[in-house]
Structures
1.
Amino acid sequence: MAKPRTIYVCQECGAEFPQYFGRCTNCGAWNSLVETEPVEALTTTRPASAVAWNRNLGVTQGEKPGGQPRASIRLSEIAEASVTRISSGYEELNRVLGGGIVPGSLVLIGGEPGIGKSTLLLQTASGLAQRLRVLYVSAEESGQQIKLRAQRLLDGHPHVEASEAAEGEYVEGQAGDSRLRSPQASRSPSGGRVRESNSPQGGEAGLGEGSLAVEPNFFLLPETDLEAILRELESLKPDFAVIDSIQTIYFSSLTSAPGSVAQVRECTSALMQVAKRENITLFVVGHVTKDGSIAGPRVLEHLVDTVLFFEGDRFASHRILRSMKNRFGATHEIGVFEMIANGLREVSNPSELFMGSRDETVSGTCTVVACEGTRPILVELQALVSPASFGSPRRSATGIDSNRLQQILAVLEKRVGVPLSKLDTYLASVGGIRVEEPAADLGVAIAVVSGFRDRLVDPHTVLIGEVGLGGQVRQVSQLELRLREAAKLGFKRAIIPKGQNPPELGLTLIPVARVLDAILEAIPSASTASPMALEAGEDSSKFSLPPLDAVDDEEEWDDDLASPGGAETDLF
């Protein structure tokens, strides 16, 4: 009897190898290969050569006869249908999904343990249960654990009241053929119903009444077997279903352990087929690996319609829901939530969350306008420049790409003449939000110069622009959207790239072509020297910048800074 053939599959990327290796040559992960039995692929009989293939079709060289479609149809023959989006009860979640939940879509949501994935989906499911049939499949917790968590999160939570007011309303389109069911006193086959509403009229009771008023349309299934989950989906036919989580579900026909590449791939594929066939909106929770990516094969992200990532600092209360892929809306949209005692609460104006107090200004701070998808967010940047304690200076960035910071520091030293090569530089964004787009470059440069000279930047000024390697300030996208957000929050001035002409929005626009010009406009005079230095009796003139408007070459400013009476000697 022949020995059964086995292969080794990487649990990180899904690559297959005929023998074991300590390190996957495809993704570089160590000790990630697991021995599995290969799945026999379907084979089709084909002629031995292309000539025989063409002969069987009756095709001669250079000819192409007309054919008839067997199952395909023309694109023009498909009936037009408006997109029916259902409100989730959270405006922030609706924004990230592109305007609401699309019936029949498959959404994958990932994030670190304890970040709030199950909390968000449980609160969303409880709101939708007032007007839709909902199935919550828990593969990690028992029914009693889910009920205890629901009592803690949902009692007195105002989120469901908003869903109750939006009953039957769609964000866009018509109701179409979606199934809007009235509450029915029915029980899940597993006995996992959380609790019925005790409204005196028998109608829908909001959670603001102080009791766990989850509708009888909320069904709970604590199960890890894929076949049992599929049977329940086909029998109950819910409008909305949650799978928590995909890494703990297993398919008994496969010999690999739950969470392996083969299990995740097959389980997701089977759930997708049922969701599309029965028009079930399916939210799937995914675990993450050590490097922050969603665990499992990359094909998992290709199968689903939308990929959401829940992120945030475990030491901060706010959470950010980011769209990484969306077939029904824009990518890189974000929704901001705040973790409170009874769950997650959406933040309608995140700019106030990531801005410091403008009444108490210090040197090294400035405000930039970052765009996440179509949402502008004002973020305060803080920079600290101090003498290096050791021979090699330290560069530290929180919320900003460290490579981007290194590049801007090089531009400031080479093109502007600010001596930073022997100074430690620390940069952070208020609130810990991560700003990745280049439009924040100008704010980073101004914050560093302000911290270096111990000078204040006007707290009513925003800075927008990308910094080039030649010291230029390059144009950015969505400038009008950024300026509208700044004007709405009471800012008076905006330093923008030269060449862009936005409409009049009540702001004083200052176009600049070089970083040097932006420094002159953002830090104009010695009257804004550090209050601590003025209170100490220091002469404010020594905190002034050299007269740059009278200097034609940046190298002369560098000579002034290096001189014995220059600012470098005075400050440090």
2.
Amino acid sequence: MELQSLIYLFVGISFTIYFGLALWTKSTSTKDFYIAKNSFTPISNGVSIAVDFISAVTFVALAGTISYIGFDGSAYIMGFTGGFVLLTLLIVPYLRKFGKFHLSEFIEARYYSRFARNITILIIIIVSFIYISAQMKGIGIVFSRIFQIDKEIALVVAIFVAFLYSLLGGIRQVTYTQIAQYIIILFAFITPIIFLCLEFTNGFLPHLALFSKTTFAFDTGIKVIPEGTFLLHVLDSSLEDFGFSYTKALGLLDIFTISLSLMLGVATLPHILVKFISTPSVNDSRKSAFWALIFIAIIYTTLSPLAALSKLNNIKHTQNVEYEAFINDEIKFQNDSPNNGKWLQTWQDIGEIKYIEKNNDGKIQINNSNSNELFINPDIQTLVNPEIANLPNWTIALILAGALAAALSTMTGLILITTNSILLLFVEKEIAYNSTKFKILSKLFLLIIISLATFFTIPYYSIIKTITISFTILAGTLFPIIVLGIFNKNITKEGAIVGLLTSLIFMLVYIIYFCFINNDINSSDEYLFGITPIGIGIIGAVLNFIVAIIVSKFTPKVPDDVILLIDNLRSPSINQKESL
């Protein structure tokens, strides 16, 4: 079947499954739209958590980013995975035992302050808004390829689809559809990597690709690397030939601060934490975390191999080929197999790939200098891999369907938590959940949030860097206050509020200045300690910890009922069935 028809077919089938499941499991009440009523087993909840965690960032952008920046990309893998471990061990058991739906309710109870609660809600809204904007960029890229339209038009289509999907999907429906989405994501993500492994290595398991050897002599255009060479050596040697410093870190401090900021931010992701309320007990929450780790690991352990294979895939199929003949599918390898290049023209028309002829030889040249002629947006590398490698058309259609599944699943949970946070600022939850006013306002806020987030852009920031900004804000604000609230009985409401405001104001000023006002910096000389905006969360967290502890020493003591609450949270009675 022709490629475009297959794309429509695969995407159409996947949407039919999602909307069918959403209608079949439709919420019976507005409250059920936002809370899943403890109705899921640890395995199903683990799948749902894994899909939320993977998102469009992992599926679309992460491997491409690692492929593009090399060693520095390890900061993202360490940050995301390490953060989930922190979340499951340090945060989840205690917040699940507390048993409330919204993170702000824990802050209000622990710090006996409605003002602290409102600050928390504001932070969640800011963070979720930035997170949604990154997801919408991913959806826009996928729609632009599916329909072969300009990205701006694709974003308008994305608004409509995201709004419709969010209307049908409450927390309950989302969990059911995410089980189907994980299956699609898994097959869509892994299948092209298996094909690449078979093409480049003597194995087929993506998770072991980095330890495999090549099955052919790899011609870089500068030298021929013999058959049987380890894949990592081929990668390193090839990139050195083209001037890339792929295995050399650009800044150890950046890697450290970005990794740590991501860890602390991931540990307090509100749309992930709410999923643990869907389990009957604290013990089931821990089981959900265990299963989620397994489902996440299946995907995440393929990211580094995919990044390496992507780089080699680009070199093999595009380096030193004649551009005009390539885009007209007239190029063949020495063994007479085709090296089709129509994909290059397609993605150029969309605006995600740029080819600029610089030496007038009519051939594509890839290197790490000013003479580089081909730039592939790292955000699309995973999506374009099957087309570059001339894989079967169904793999191209499958990966687009998988990317759409990854983006929509996470975005729905984010929109729900953001809408609920906004409404909590205006009306009491008990009234809101059962009122017509709540239903009308929630739909209005859904549309406003999606529309504004779609066209929000941080200049020069990719999807992965945009989403890291949201994590770094969480790292500096909510993580310290939650940890102190659980493990330190002496932190008062005054200490928590001043600590939150200090870190929030500091980070917002820093991010706004260096991302929007003075964003033409080519070196880190003007950064505080050389720390980029995406890694500033660790400094915000240190400020938060210090200020909260110091202020608490000079303010009235924590009330006795709050002390009892903390003692109850930290007691080992994990098998009881806590109700919402």
3.
Amino acid sequence: MTEENKDIKSLDKDALKKNDSAEQKKGKINFDVDDEIELKAQRKPEGWLGKAIALMAALTALFHIGSLVFYPLDPWVFRTIHVMTLSVLGFLLLPGWTKACKTNPHWSDWLLAAASIVVALYIILNYKVLMFRMGVMPTQMDFYVALAGTILVLEIARRASGWALPILSMVFIAYAFLGPYLPGIFEHRGYSPERFFTYIYGLDGIFSVPINISSKYIILFIIFSSFLTVSGVGKYFVQWAFSVSGHLRGGPAKVAILASALMGTMNGTSAGNAVATGSLTIPLMKRVGYNPRFAAATEAVASTGGQIMPPIMGAGVFIMAEMTGIPYQTLMIAGIIPAILYFASTYFMVDKEASKLGLYGVPRDQLPPLGEVMRRAYMFFPVLILFGMLMMGQSVIKSGFYAILAALVISWLNKDSRMGFAKTLRALEMGAKGAIQLMAVCAAAGIIMGVIALTGIGLKFSSLLLGIAGTSEFLALVFAMLIAIVLGMGMPTTAAYAVAASVVAPGLIQMGIQPLLAHFFVFYFACVSAITPPVALASYAASAISGSDPMKTGYTSFRLGIAAYIVPFMFFYAPEILMNSNLMEIYGYTYVDVAIRAATALIGIFALSSAVQGWYFGSANPWQRALLFAAALLLVTHHTWLDLLGFVILAALWAMNRQKVDKKPETVSSSA
């Protein structure tokens, strides 16, 4: 389409129907999205090699399920096999350079895959003695193996996620050697290459918390996500979202929000979610009248929200549980109201855009019948099983395993999506292939965390933060926000949070801020780095589908997701929205306070959306938008009188706009 990058004018229902494609005139919207769209960057080997790699991927997924559920291995051995198997798959499937062959691996890929196996075998065969030697009194062979292993991790991270994370990792590696020559708080005594690399390639570095989470939880939920896709549950989620909201004004944008909330929580990357759901929602958003940039930005913001949506929260929450010692169930509950506020804000934004442009939704006759869709509501069963078991206090691994089985059983109820042996192997294969990127970024994040622990730069940075902010908690939070966003740019959420939490969270906790508040704050800003220019990965991924300018899409995403930059500050000034019993006891809050604060915050988010979009029951001029913004800030505070003042402002503006609407017919009649 030659006008793909131009604004599409708003269409009424009749115009919309006239502009439908021939295929859409004949029937309903095609919901058959490419199941492998997130794996498009990977090679597609042909013949016996393709089958062998597919079988290896399926066996890798089966090994992880078997070891996690039935036959636990030593943690270091298990994590080593995790890194080795996914690295071998990664080197064979991910091209090393732009013009590399897209079907068969290069000889250098085979060499790197073989090196990954050799390094892993050395660890597995010697781990009992290496536990006491690595990082303390390593042998020369220990050093060579650790150096090779670190280089392999950097290379697989580069192939899987680009240059940002490997470069940051190399900066931290360089810091370990340049410390004696640096001034002030950055100075440290330095380390020999032998000690440094054997420390980093151990349980305190590459195989530390991020890889522990990747091997135990992330891969399990990516396998679960692939089972949802193959079983037809993922397709049903999209159909349900279209059936419920597709007919509303600007319907496809609201579908993007619902679908991304449902599927994004199980997807470890915002960009991956944007590509998966955006391939269907973005073209439809453009079709009903949204311009390409706004359509891409909406999908990017909604997909980023999937990372903060319980129960899985894009897997970053598992790292938070490991780092803080706070039970996973507590973190999942704490994320409910903030996630509602985030998605409500996005919904208000797209609804107001639709109001301004006079957009309609997709005609009902092109959508799945609501009754028919609701009769298949049992398709939600796997997610309900997962959520229910987690709420009952069952282990994450057990809950994930039974959710996978539930997806398999549910598929047998539909003839078209019934999972036999071949489809089950396909789901396992997709799960292992989908886990490659997150394993790679978690391993690279482990390098950074290892350097922070070895050099003590984290504690020094905390002291610096305290020194700059002084006694101002707000100033410390602003600095923490900026650091978390900058560190997260160009990285998937999981790695972004792991790195930012290691650097920023200790300083906030040292100021007396509760660990739950500090880590949730950092987690949110690590997530929204995906829609923060200049490096907004989710926005760039969505813009590739819409054909819009990536940088302009990034700025539009920032505008649409503005609430995500305010909600984290509410954790400190209205901590009851996290529904944590310990915090509520400390501050003396009840669940009535929770309900009141959630309600006023929701109205505040509505006011904020109105201010940003310039639409509050009609067009809002600049001074009205300023008042709306002020009302929004008043309503998200923790003071009753300020809340009341915010309500008064909103009521006055509503009355003014209502008066304008009432006067319009008189003007028309008098002119007649």
4.
Amino acid sequence: MNFSRLLFCTPFYTFMIGLSSQAYAQQDQTLETITVTASGIERQLAKLSSNLTVLGQDVLREVNHQHINQVMSRVPGAWVSRGNGQEHLTALRSPVLTGGGGCGAFFMAQDGISLRGLGFCNINQLFDTNALQAQRVEVLRGPASTLYGSNAVHGVINVITPDPLSNQAGELGLTLGPHDYQQAKFSVSHQQGEHGVMAYGNASHDGGYKDDSGFEQQKLTLIHQFQGENWSIKNVISGANLAQDTAGFIRGFEAYKEQSRKRENPNPEAYRDSQSMRAYSLIDYRPSEHEVVNITPYIRWTDMEFLQHFLPWQPVEENSQNGAGVKLSYQQVQQTFSWIAGVDIDHTQGELTEFQAEPFAPHLPAGFHYDYEVDATVIAPYAKAFWQVADRLELSAGVRYEYTDYDYQNNLSDGSACAPEVTNCRYTRPSSQQVSFNETSFEVGASYQLAPNHRVYSQYSQGYRAPQATELFRLQAGQTVANLAPETSDGIELGMRGQTSGLFYDVSLFAMEKEQVIFQDANRQNVNNGETSHRGLEFLLRYQLPKNFFVQANGTLANHTYEADLTLSRVNIKGNEIDTAPQHMGSVQLGWQSPDDKQVVLEWQHMGNYFVNPENTADYEGHNLINLRASAPVATNLTLAAQWLNITDQDYAERADFGFGQYRYFVGEPRSLFVSLRYRFD
């Protein structure tokens, strides 16, 4: 780790960690918080042997995000990098990962059900779910494949929908902002006896800060809930639609600082259209006080079309998938020994086409580059146990086996997509084939009570992901077969969490090694001999100050490096920092909240510097942003809120990278003001 890069922020982090000897606990996350995401069964946060961050309704309402990036900045070790419109890239204890398989390192879910079929992820898939109006968002960092299987290499983001029986008030909201930004949202619910129903959703319009950009987006969720003596059933239907005019990178060193170029859009023709739908039932049967049977059948559908504006020849991709599955589990919960065993079954039919309207070069021809279908089947039994060894010590262990099968059908001619005389064709279509993978993972953990409300925890866990369909079947440069194995990761963490009357804290150290990393080499072949290392410290602190003031902070100090002996541009990158992997990032909120629901929150967001290429010859200097959010009741059940973002009008890039020999930037927006009205009714 290059510690000279950390010197300026070390005094701040040291001061914030020192607060853990004082005190604060916020309603969104306390030791008593009940969660399922990290353990598979209902357990208090206090007893978990791993990290978990919970973003509850209070935080989601306060931030009232226009982009998921804004609220995810409250999670240590997480960076959901903001692209244009609703696009994003994700990092959880990792660099920002890109490419066809980059999204495969993260398990992204709604109520524990993957947003996309395994093998068919999309780097922007969080825009399929309605995090803005969720009950909470839970983020688990580090390998988690024992419970979640393929894709949980670096972590899990789980969006939890509200329960109609617990949400008896309705709400109407309106937000207005710059560039003709408008968002309307609603929520209504009704309860009668053991039944509750709820509908909520939002519609957004953004005229776009960049020239010829903007989006229209709609989201709707319908929920029915039944709570009987032994049965609990929650039926959910949710859908999302996005129609986006996408602005591309601007190019040139520190171009984001040039006032005349900030609104520049080199790709006014770019677009992304996406639709998704999910329907499922969360069925919970309790035959006795200590037994629980869970049955979760689901169906899932997505369709997306977009212009690949980041490639000079600009092909259009269309992908779609239809899937169905069921998650089955049985658990016994006793005072000293509890366990869960289950099986996840998923079948997805995916399709992908890539079409280029105009010829660019002989090796980049017009016409269809790819047209294929893949039937994917996943079967995965698992088990996990929890043993209260002594009054203060609990141990846990889990294991999972997963079988993945891809049945691929090429709908075009096999081999080169170019004319017969072209020898260096960019696109290669493998012949129809069937590929399968078998993978096993396990985890062990411990939680020890040092004192009432103070615990240390530790866990060793494994993660893996089967290759994505695009990595296996969307080949280039004459590669006819991709002999890829699953990526694997081994992670260990040691942490301490606790609370007093005024403090909540969670501090963890982690180390992770990732092997068989899939990447495209200098010859444009998909290979899987990469190795990376990830080590760091994360913290989350909340402290109650006198007179209704509070301070909360999260931060990460980490080092992400290449460990394989690989050469790029005649440079051996072993030991180099991974590109787009800041060593330090975090945020601090200083707030005041009155007993009558007035609130003011001043926020500092810090993004450290990072390299933008594997050779470590180009970098981004990082940035610091100041935001101010305030809300107050102005009439009975009516609240006025405002967000003043980037109040110092900082020049910054949401994300920087280096491609085709040039610096490229997504420009951060200047100072902006958003005003909201929220009306609650019974």
